[in-house]
Amino acid sequence: MTHVDARLAVLRARLREWGEQLRPLALEIDRDPEAIRHHFDLPAVRHLATMGIPAAYGHEPEKIDGHRFYGDSALERAVVMEELACADVGTLVASPGPLLAGVAVGLFADEAQKKWFYGRMLSEPLWTCFALTEPDGGSDAAALRSTLTRTADGALLSGEKRYVGNASRAQLGVVFARSGPGPLGISAVLVDTTDPGFRAAPLDMIGLRGARISSIAMDGVAVPEEHFLGRHLPATRRGVWAFVQTFNLLRPGVAAISVGIARAALEYVADHRGTLRAAERERLDDLVRRVDAARLLVHHAAAAVDARGTDGHLASAAKLRTARLAEDATLAACSFFGPGARLDHPLLDKLARDARAMEFLEGTANMQRLTLFQGLLGGKIDRAAPPLAVR
């Protein structure tokens, strides 16, 4: 059973065509993530640059076999992420676009904020960032130390963020900070990164180098009142609620990236190893079956959060399973080429490094287990159903 209908099958086929243009860039982007600036004309990069912007704000993507694809559902994003990650995950995460910040804007920005954000995204390819994690507290909202100090016409934003994708080259960002005590005292604001007091620098990374994972330092960044996200909503629908819903909607896409990395490694074996012995063929086939099963879980999770954004437990199961699968598949792929595989096959080495990074992207395995447990306690997981076999 699959949730991918004929319309999404058309998109998947076109993405595979576009992916052929990304594969040759893999090692180039890994060496120099800024090389993506020379490839804005590629169809896949153009698609990512505006993915998630609704038609109501002037977005008219090119038709694919008579269909327009806006990237406005978790399921559609999962299809995009898997195919382009299979082509090259580095180019995927290096590309400009709204992505995480765009989903947050779509969820809880007011009309004026959406026009401002989407309008800028449509005017030229821009990078965005979503800044929650901090050096000493990770993504723990209770430990958030960045502050928003109120002024006559807005607030001053100060503090540090860590491990934020594309922050060093982002022009726009969504930043979470504390404006008061308790869980309701957390606010999200839109930030123009060119404003005085905002500084970001890339961190040295082993995997997912294309993402330009960065640290951020903010010293009295002026935030006007109109850039407070969710100001038209009750306090319970801002802050913590907002980033939880954002992660729920994006998590299936992150899981799909891991599926794409696993696929890429197995396809590399099929393309470069030649004739396989019977035992090797059995090992490879078993991994392919695991990839197919993981994809079904990702699609189920995406359909669940599309139906109700608070149902993120399946997305956590998908993230947990696929991150492990990506590591297993890439390391197994290396074993097909002998002890020197990672030296002799630099693309396989890159895939293994990227796969390991997926454990940490958008929450570690333990964080996903906590979400699953909360789903169980909340009655969202049927105790009588067969187990998810999450490891």
Automatic annotation (TrEMBL):
Cofactor(s) essential for the protein: FAD
Xref: Pfam families: Acyl-CoA_dh_1, Acyl-CoA_dh_M, Acyl-CoA_dh_N
Sequence ranges assigned to domain Acyl-CoA oxidase/dehydrogenase middle in this UniProt record: 129-221
Alphabetical UniProt keywords: FAD, Flavoprotein, Oxidoreductase
Keyword Oxidoreductase in annotation: yes
Annotated SUPFAM superfamilies: Acyl-CoA dehydrogenase C-terminal domain-like (SSF47203), Acyl-CoA dehydrogenase NM domain-like (SSF56645)
Molecular function GO terms recorded: acyl-CoA dehydrogenase activity; flavin adenine dinucleotide binding
Domain Acyl-CoA dehydrogenase/oxidase N-terminal positions: 12-123
Annotated family: Belongs to the acyl-CoA dehydrogenase family.
Annotated protein name in UniProt: Acyl-CoA dehydrogenase
